[in-house]
Amino acid sequence: MRESAAERHDRLLGLVRERGSARVSDLAGQLGVSPVTVRRDVEELAGRGLLDRVHGSVSWPRGRGGPDGAPAGAGRGAGLVLGMLAPSATYYFPEVIRGAHEAAARAGARLILRISDYRPEEDHARTEGLLAAGAEGLLVAPGWRRPDDPSAYGDWITSLPVPTVLLERQPVPGSRLDGTDRVCSDHRHGVLLAVRHLMELGHGAPLLMARDDSPTALAVRAGYADALGVLGVRAPRDVIGSVPAETHPDRFEAAVQALREAVASGTATAALIHNDVDAIQVVQRLAELGVRVPQDLALIAYDDEVAALADTPLTAVAPPKREVGRQATGLLMERLGHGRGQGEEEPRRHLTLLPQLRVRASCGATPV
Q1: Highest averaged pLDDT of the listed ranges 209-213, 341-345, 351-355
Q2: For 235-252, b where at least 16 C-beta lie within 10 A, e where not — what string?
């Protein structure tokens, strides 16, 4: 089986950690790959703070476990290896990963990563790979996409042999997994912020255009119903299902046309759209159809990954992604510390962090 880039990175890091420093040319020979590949790997790992790079050589960063395995710094986690399973490294989760890496580095621990690409059936095997690579504690964001995935692909997490913290995932209430430590964004609160803001600007209840292919999307849909109930209003129409324009162009066009019709008929003057990419493409297509944002339609996006880069910068709900990674890593470090000490184990924790609303031009309010 061909070695993955993540596995090669682990071997490279292991060699540098063992020696303290090494030349790129020597690493290429030991890893059995070209110097170009090693230089590319070193650039990526150095960018993540896992290596120091100087003129054709790399060294183990100061403040991390030294080449003899002893702590090189005073961090309480010096020498520890933490594993992280994430469903993606290209949207939403890069900030979560970055926050986890920052917190691990501050503690002197090393973070290693596996990506599931939203294939929950492979989560278990990828996590076993993290354990085989030496992970002593785990941060796990399963690749769930559908409502029944937590029950179908969640039980294995409760049998992991090391302390584990869930990231941005809500297990089935009352399940065994529900008793696991977790750190999540409160998407229901985020949706309420958006709906309330639009109504305070003088709009009726905004309509929702959202995907249904991720835990965040499902939470946004549930949060929308809750927000309308809290504010005592009814949805102007059924939720418009959103899909990626590049993979389902016909369905995407149908969704945009449904939104255009809602605006033309006066059914709605405001909308919340999940996610950023869809929102930007929707605004572009609406402009072609003669619907202006925010003049004809006040709009808020959900996720705030690229919302600020739209032609008309999009007001957006911003989950605290980086802080989720930081807080989850801190909680995991605490669990590892308690596991090594004496005394009664502390209660499990469910930590919920609140999103923020970042006001820009697309909602018609004055940006702040």
Answers
A1: 351-355
A2: ebbebbbbbebeeeeeeb
Least Cα distance to 363 among 318, 319, 314 occurs for 314
Residue 82 in contact with residue 102, Cβ under 8 Å?
A: no
CATH classification at residue 262: 3.40.50.2300
Both tokens of 17, joined, read: 């950690």
Checking if the pLDDT of 150 tops 90, the result is yes
- With beta carbons less than 8 A apart as the criterion, state whether 355 and 320 touch: yes
Of the candidates 259, 225, 356, the residue with the CA atom closest to the CA atom of residue 303:
356
* Residue 216 belongs to domain spanning: 187-319
Q: What is the mean pLDDT of the chain?
A: 89
Here the CATH number for the domain that contains residue 34 is: 1.10.10.10
Distance CA 129, CA 125 (A): 6
Domain endpoint, select from 45, 61, 77: 61
196 pLDDT exceeds 60?
A: yes
Q: What's the structural domain count of the chain?
A: 2
The answer to whether 224 touches 209, Cβ cutoff 8 Å, is no
* Tokens representing residue 306 in the block: 């690229």
Percent of the chain with pLDDT over 70: 91
Bridge-based pairing of strands 110-115 and 137-140 is unpaired
Higher-pLDDT residue of 344, 133: 133
* Sheet order of strands, 21-23 included: 21-23, 57-59, 52-54
Per-residue pLDDT of 21-40, as tens digits, reads 888 888 888 888 888 998 88
Determine, yes or no, domain membership for 198. yes
Q: Which two tokens stand for residue 145?
A: 């996409």
> Higher confidence at residue 76 or residue 194?
194
Q: Is the pLDDT of residue 264 over 80?
A: yes
Q: What is the DSSP letter of 308?
A: G
Confirm if 332 and 326 have CB atoms less than 8 A apart.
no
Tell me the C-alpha distance between 255 and 267, whole Å: 15
Question: DSSP 3-state assignment of 79?
Answer: coil
Sign, Cα dihedral of 254, 260, 266, 271 = positive
Q: Is residue 15 part of a domain?
A: yes
